[in-house]
Amino acid sequence: GKEQPSMNQLFQGRQLNRSREILELFMAPRYTSTERDALKNPKEAMIIYNTTTDKINFYDGSTWRVVTST
Hints:
Strand content: 15-25%
Radius of gyration: 16 Å
Distance between the termini: 47 Å
Largest sheet: 4 strands, mixed
């Protein structure tokens, strides 16, 4: 059979910023704060885009946290 290209081969030769590339490939589910808080049994490391705050949130296993830049 035909060999499948690796991820490195797919991006080879492209001069895009790696962070921007990853963000363009990944779109987190979108929830309001109320919808997020109503999720039953969120999994640790779950990521959502909070449309109430316009921020990315992640679940640390016990509470929702906001992703911030330093």
